[in-house]
User: Which sequence fits this backbone?
């Protein structure tokens, strides 16, 4: 039986491999996915975003180079299917415009979840608060374990 997809954004991946305020919830959610029929998916952009975040952590002094490098390797080794369907960027561009988002990075995750008809999980509370009313498939990590339904 094929696993059901769920789109995961870079914020959740970073929380899985570094010490973030949302790391415990990210680990609990990830554990639930890994012990069920859930397949985490993401657009190819995920690798670029996680790499950039790790680099910023080093530049800002919040992580040592060796730790950030190890965390990046861990992030890239996670069991996440990287999917790059035709038309993804065009749909992300349209979604970013419709949602009045100044950049289209986050819209790529939303576009993938739309194309796959699955939930999209984020640890980005600001994004969630700005658009969740218009994007019912968007889930915020902060709600996980607080009575909010988990992925199917």
Assistant:
């Amino acid at each position: 039986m094929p696993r059901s997809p769920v789109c995961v954004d870079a914020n959740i991946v970073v929380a899985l491999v570094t010490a973030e305020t949302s790391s415990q919830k990210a680990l609990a959610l990830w554990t639930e996915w890994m012990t069920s029929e859930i397949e985490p998916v993401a657009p190819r952009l995920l690798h670029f975003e996680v790499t950039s975040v790790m680099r910023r952590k080093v530049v800002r002094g919040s992580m040592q180079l060796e730790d950030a490098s190890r965390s990046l390797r861990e992030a890239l080794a996670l069991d996440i299917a990287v999917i790059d369907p035709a038309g993804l960027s065009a749909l992300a561009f349209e979604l970013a415009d419709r949602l009045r988002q100044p950049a289209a990075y986050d819209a790529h995750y939303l576009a993938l979840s739309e194309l796959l008809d699955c939930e999209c999980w984020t640890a980005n509370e600001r994004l969630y608060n700005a658009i969740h009313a218009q994007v019912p498939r968007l889930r915020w990590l902060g709600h996980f374990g607080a009575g909010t339904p988990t992925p199917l």
The longest strand covers residues 38-43.
